[in-house]
Amino acid sequence: MIRFIDEYRNRFSVEFICKTLKNNRAGGFITSRGYRQSKARGLSARRLRDAVLVDRIRTVHRDNYGVYGVRKMWHALRRDGIDIGREQTARLMRLAGVSGKGRSPLTTRKANVPDLRPDLVEREFKAQGPNKLWVADITYVRTKKGFVYAAFITDVYSRRIVGWALSDSIRTETLPLQALNQAIVCAEETTGLIHHSDHGSQYVSVVYNQRLAQHGIAASTGTVGDSYDNALAENVNGSYKNELIHARRWDDVVEVEIATFEWVSWWNETRLHQSLEYRTPVEVETEFWKQNPPQEIIEIKANA
């Protein structure tokens, strides 16, 4: 109430504000005399402490990507040596105007049919060349208009993102299948290639596995609930979030799609990868094909 009167006292008198509130609302509102006495006393010790804690809460919230809700904020403050209760934390978070992000959307939905795909990788994320082993996964982006989902397919040998798609729907046809189609079009050869993913229903779907089979690609998956069995794909998702998504707030799917296109181009052509001895994926693939030209190129040179 004090804050409300402070905000409008220059437009209306203190007496007018207090009288109007009293006449139009239930009892309990401050009088003009009470307002002036309160201002004369200054802030109480509790309000001073609240003001300090509100600033601290805003800092902790900002430094943790704005995802902490009451429970995590409470634990964070106590770890900092601040003696505070959970309910008090909730009250001060409301004063600070911050809140948690809530639960994250599910990107891996259990299929309604048995997953009969074998594990052809067994955590050995190594390949002898491009288009031998791909890993695939789905992640999400929070925007002002809702969630956007991103599907990536990465070549294990070169770490090049060979296919990606973005959509506000997680359906197979609108997301991972689009990424797969892009990867297939860009590949020199797919016969004998292994495609490794988690147990999400999109990757178990009939239409997705039919497309793999049409191009001679073997489907593979790891242990249920074990992210290490798709660790390389998870690493790509993590880099995408840390390097691009967490840097700002996003408006909608179009804005994210444009930025993702630029990020993928940078990832493939410019970004130095420690796992590639600080080379780019494009450099690694170019060097490989220079040393191991496709068979049709060898035949053309032989017949020249």
Automatic annotation (TrEMBL):
InterPro entries the record matches: HTH-like_dom, Integrase_cat-core, RNaseH-like_sf, RNaseH_sf, Transpos_IS3, Transposase_IS3/IS150/IS904
Protein's name according to its UniProt entry: Transposase
Domain Integrase catalytic: 126-289
GO molecular function: nucleic acid binding
SUPFAM superfamilies: Ribonuclease H-like (SSF53098)
Role this protein plays: Involved in the transposition of the insertion sequence.
Annotated GO biological process: DNA integration
Pfam families attached to this UniProt entry: HTH_21 (PF13276), rve (PF00665), rve_2 (PF13333)
